[in-house]
Protein: Protein kinase domain-containing protein
Amino acid sequence: MAGWQMKQFLRALPPVRAGGDLWRLRNSDSSVAQTIAVVEEISNIPNVRLYSYKELRKATENFRSENKLGQGGFGSVYKGRLGNGTLAAIKVLSMDSSQGTREFLAEINVISVINHDNLVKLHGCCVEGQHRILVYPYLENSSLDKMLFGRGHRNIQFNWQTRCKICIGVAQGLAFLHEEVQPHVIHRDIKASNILLDKDLNPKISDFGLARLLPANLTHVSTRVAGTVGYLAPEFAIRGQATRRTDIYSFGVLLLEIVCGRYNINRRLPAEEPYLLEMVWEHHEKGQLLELVDISLRQDFVTEQACRYLKIGLLCTQDMPKLRPSMATVVKMLTGEIDISDQTISRPGMLSEFMLRKDVLCKKGESTAEDSGKPIDSTSSSRHMDTSYATITFDSIFDRSN
Structure:
């Protein structure tokens, strides 16, 4: 850390009861000592700037409600203008958030070294007292769910070409996390509200939190369930075992949403059609996939391409994880480099079947991985779907088997 940054940080600390040197400061108050340790660790992370709480309070006009962009499971996000005039999205972690110091540091560690056009970048952070704040670039067109599901800027043409660009961009970002970053990274909460759009409607995968760097001999991550119902792969929701294939399942659901223009769960629909994945599978079996393409496109789409994208979504959501294609393969399928016309598509992992299996387990007195999850904020991925469990979550893995 630069000397001026440490001085600025020390001035922000509460008065020390006895003594004035750093050693006494560490031992006089555990929370102060912890804060110093966090700041010292962050100072060793390249490309991360430390902001003062005063700077960010000024940038957001004292965190005015008018500047609030949204709220998630771990806190609120505000639009702010930094001292150099740059617009930023400032994520203020709630003091009672389940994202602790270790997770906060892990998020910064991982994001600081990731650089890809389809992943959000980190400007910096703030660590003062109980304040934990992350500073990201401000993206003009908010999140994909607001644009796609009718709550965004209606003057923007969300046409077929734009949707294709978003699908391919998200796939490329995930392929980078899964196969180029070492150790590999799984996001665990891929969904429309976690895809941000810049001024040119280029997608950026966001919400990288609760990162864990694991030994390189692991084949999966066993952990509490994190994510959103509807996007969760069955094997993850039931057993809490996450691999890259669980991200691929979530991407498959997102792909179907983008093509069909509707949430993966909509309780307002008739009882036989609340789940998008089940509807797509039924229409696939009947050879009627094109009936599900978003009607707002008014038939202005490439028929072959739309049908192919829906089939790719089904390939990504197959019940057997081993059958799902890798994200690198998915990118080639989306761009037409790989022909899928002769691909056999097996039955997807259905949400309704997962709920039934969960009920059976509960009746037998067995616990599911889901039981240890935490509820997310109501602003998470949709108004019309049942959501569950902590968002902003991903793990780093090395997966030998897939």
Notes: The mean pLDDT is 77. The first strand starts at residue 49 and ends at 50. The chain has two domains: 3-137, 144-397.
